[in-house]
Design goal:
The chain has helices at 53-59, 86-89; strands at residues 15-18, 28-33, 37-42, 48-52, 60-64. The chain has 96 residues and is an alpha+beta fold. A 5-stranded antiparallel beta sheet has the order 4-3-2-1-5, covered by helices on one side. Strand 2 (28-33) and strand 3 (37-42) form a beta hairpin.
Length: 96
């Protein structure tokens, strides 16, 4: 049964403009990870923050879509792709 509430499909790398300013003076946050909680990084000072999805949707003013690579990465040498797990190697998950 579909939910009666619309959830915005956050994507890693999107830049969010929030309604309240961060103490460092920045307004923009980059989505670092998604799920029930959304991981955000301040684009001004690099502060990491987790926020529940529903609270973030209320605190958002606008979204700048992903254009290529994310602006900031926690590990600059690590590729931004899904890692293969033991379950994938053993054939536990089938794709396509």
């Amino acid at each position: 049964m579909p939910s009666r509430f619309y959830l915005y499909p956050f994507k890693v790398g999107e830049i969010l403009h929030l309604k309240k300013q961060h103490p460092c003076g920045g307004w923009l946050w980059q989505v670092q990870r998604t799920g029930a909680d959304i991981g955000l990084v301040c684009t001004t000072c690099g502060h990491l923050m987790n926020m529940p999805r529903q609270k973030l949707e209320k605190a958002m003013e606008s979204v700048q879509p992903v254009s290529g690579e994310p602006m900031m990465q926690t590990e600059p040498n690590e590729p931004l792709q899904a890692k293969e797990t033991d379950k994938d190697r053993q054939g536990g998950i089938r794709h396509g």
